[in-house]
User: What shape does this take?
Amino acid sequence: MGYTERMAQRQRETGRPVRVGLVGAGQMGRGFVAQARRITGMEVVAVADLDLDRATGALRAAGVEGVRTGDDLAALGAHVEDGGTVAVPDPALVSALPVDMVIDATGVPEAGAQIALRSLLAGKHVGLLNVETDVTVGWLLQQLAARSGAVYTLCRGDEPAEALKLVEFARDLAFDVVCAGKGKNNPLDPHATPTGLRAQAERKRMNPKMLASFVDGSKAMIEMAALANAADLGVACRGLHGTETTVPELHRVFRPAADGGVLDRAGVVDYATGPVAPGVFVVARSDEPTVVDEMAYLGMGEGPYYGFYRPYHLASIEAPLSVPAAVLDGRSDISPRAWRAEVAAAAKRPLRAGEVVDGIGGECVYGVVEDAAVAAEQRLVPLGLLAGARLVRDVPADGVLTHDDVELDTSTTIWQLRALQDRLLGGPGAGGAPAAPSLLDGLLRAPVPA
Assistant: This one.
């Protein structure tokens, strides 16, 4: 039985739809509201955005009338219980409302950390359209969710989730996964800045920092790190290869060098440029003679390497699928099962001591994915912690920032969660089981942050 029938059945049994709260009413948030409203048994009953007009606008664009605003939590909660919809400027209110799941569509690491922590402590399922938070503290959030009985997940529709589905498909059929990845649809320019891309961003009606994060490669690095951690795969090389190729050639390119490809080993993530975007792919191998013969008969090539490809990802349009997965099945679509990859930061230009880093997609740094163990050994600073960091010494262009180069803002939620994650993992990116689970249990007993 599909989700449509099951969600309708749940609504008949409970007398109400699954209630979803959304934080962030930008492009992704608006798409989520519009699509979720069309799904039987699901309603976005609360939207938060610092720009209240944007929050109410997202709801009204989806045909929602009678939206109530304000900051009286009791009144807002009663309105939701009565079947109404609310819009608020304070994200902290959403997890306190009578919702079943909170979706974060801010794309800001610190905001995502606050929203996820607050929601999990309130016993609410959490879905992120915010991969930036996941590659910084996703392992800890997954551990908290497991202990709280709630679900922590990235949402369907983004490349990591859809690539993971292909990985699972290949593994379920006993193929060996050689490489998993995505197509990048912007020409790579690591030194691209929001200032230089402003005119292009305006033509595309995009935030210049968001566009810069696509063009400078940060987004691709972040997405492939999330995939590596969720699929327990390695990193092909620092920054990945990003080889230009076509879909029919994926299985020839992303195979070990000993067999004519670009990889130094199997079991890694990478990305492709060229006409592979907006799809995701897996290159897998089988050496079973009968399987090789059958795959040839089915038009999949001579083997033993095969490319599995999905030609699209539907971003916010697919994201609502993660709601019934969590609410009905208690299942995460994608979350870290290991800590294999880290996203570090390299300088877009010579950086001088005293400068303040403006974060992902900004003027200062671009993301570079690296093996987590290497990142820990070299003390590389996670990209998701760098917004607001102050340089304490000069860094040359393309130099990768270490903890010795910066003074981080230790007052942020994401820094504090990352410090706990590092402690539980035995050091940044060390991997393994929690060394002190009582710390997690203590956090879950803490009051919900205001």
Remarks:
- The chain has two domains: 3-158+317-329, 159-313.
